[in-house]
Amino acid sequence: MLDSLPPLNALKAFEAAARLGSVTAAAQELSVTHGAVSRQIRALEAHFDTSLFERAGRGLVLTRYGRQLHAGVSEAFTGLRASCRALNREIEGAPFTLACPGSLLARWLIPRLDRLHRELPSLRLNALASDGEPDPRRGDISAALAFIAPPWPSDMEVIEIAPETIGAVAAPGIAERLTTRPFDALFDETLLDTASRPQAWPQWAHACGLDDDALVRARQSGQSFEHLYYLLEAALAGLGVAIAPRLVIEGDLQSGRLVAPWGFVDTDARLCLLLARGTPRQSGEQLATWLRHEVTTRA
Amino acid sequence: MLDSLPPLNALKAFEAAARLGSVTAAAQELSVTHGAVSRQIRALEAHFDTSLFERAGRGLVLTRYGRQLHAGVSEAFTGLRASCRALNREIEGAPFTLACPGSLLARWLIPRLDRLHRELPSLRLNALASDGEPDPRRGDISAALAFIAPPWPSDMEVIEIAPETIGAVAAPGIAERLTTRPFDALFDETLLDTASRPQAWPQWAHACGLDDDALVRARQSGQSFEHLYYLLEAALAGLGVAIAPRLVIEGDLQSGRLVAPWGFVDTDARLCLLLARGTPRQSGEQLATWLRHEVTTRA
DNA sequence: CATGTAATGTGAGTTTTTCTCAACGGTGGT
DNA sequence: ACCACCGTTGAGAAAAACTCACATTACATG
């Protein structure tokens, strides 16, 4: 295909000037000085080796060739503008689908969804529970929220939201009967955890200075759940002491349905927002900012 | 109107890459490196804040949004290309209308028209006689050929072709009877000139060192014609001695129908090509070059 | 399974284009 | 006659685009 296209920006300037009948007006529309537009038009005239405007003192009048060019070009530009506006609408109007572990969704995100919709109305967030590994590479998902440990996957963008803090929690009844006893009496209770995070108890115990062997013994009579969600239900029901991320049980702590008298410790994992490729970066960053704010101010 | 147009050169790169399904192929078509195209596409993706291609190892595949954009954009670009090609055809196909004083046309240009059409076939020259002042500002004229003296008009482009040289000429019979007599015996003959160039005789006589007063006396019995054309016919008919631009009577000198034994002198006028605004500069310069060559080699 | 080939992506630096600023020149209204 | 407005232009500054060289990835082949 021959390079029969003239300089496009010159064409843009010409189109505006021809439509508005004035270099100055075109310059305003294009947010440049009138000198710039004048030059672009000159360049186009040089390209076609003909004059496109008659300089008629006050303003401009199209020549025969200018009229012909403008007729075709304005149509094409209208089409171009329409296509781009349509695409923008499409992109901006698309819902932002966020995958999120079920427990985090139910216990942390859903209670905040209303506020999110109010504060980020343009995002049109669509939250859904992800079972197992979050994978925003799935076509129908814009991003995933998850606790993950470094190294970050390299094939998608990872935005850190907050460090993960975990701690032992229990129903108030259990905690009460432990308050007068030594710290490691904790191990006399049934220890609950999830199959997906076997390192949680050791990490926490180690950070708290508890004896590893005692923990190993204690876990033998403990119970493991498939999902964090069941684990928490078990803890709420008073079945034992659970280990869980602070964020997920935040609401239960505030309502008093769970207590965590033994404190929390950071892990090497982070709460991260994983952006699928092709996801509008702006939306992702908006959401990340909102999440970060939500975590730090109302944690 | 909102500036809803993306960077057009990025759009051009995208259109080519989408159409050809390859960054490298697009780069070849646009005569740039693949890096340049890659960057332009990135810029466009940044503009829309979405990805337009899936990078699928070997080549590229349009995403949903990319497909949508390309559908609209390729159509617009096709229209743009068509408009510009049409305009180019229009401009290049337009005949080049050259106005020319009748005598110059008849005695100098017309004998050379055949060669001109052969050597500059793309010009499609259309020569016509201009009465009175040549004015390429008239809409239907591309350029004018004329002897004019400085200063040049400022509202059109002036290309100098050659200096004007004028001289006294006469039919061979008249010249013969003067050869044995002194130079200023010339003034005994009937002096012929044109109403449009009353200064021609004095200029020539002065440059030749002839007596001004004698000239004034001689002209009182001379005759003035409205056009150079009639003047030359009179000289050919042996009515007297005419003063004329060398170029116009060149053919008559060579054929021996006129002689100019007294030589020629330069005036301050020039043979110029006056280009109307809007006339393709390339055509004008082509013609000017040809004219200059024709004047100097076959004068 | 290493290796080669062909494709895209990217950092740094350079070239080219484009823009702005400030001045000039012409036109029309008051 | 003056003023306000508009387009043009030269010089220098700013921005965009490009090139080069290399990295990276996927597919094909020996």
From TrEMBL, chains A, B:
HTH lysR-type domain location? 6-63
Q: Which domain of life is it from?
A: Bacteria
Q: Does the keyword DNA-binding apply?
A: yes
Q: Which GO terms describe its molecular function?
A: DNA-binding transcription factor activity; sequence-specific DNA binding
Q: Which SUPFAM superfamilies match?
A: Periplasmic binding protein-like II (SSF53850), Winged helix' DNA-binding domain (SSF46785)
Keyword terms, alphabetized: DNA-binding, Transcription, Transcription regulation
**A Pfam family the protein falls into:** HTH_1
User: Its family?
Assistant: Belongs to the LysR transcriptional regulatory family.
The name this protein carries in UniProt is DNA-binding transcriptional LysR family regulator
Task: Write down the species.
Answer: Kushneria indalinina DSM 14324
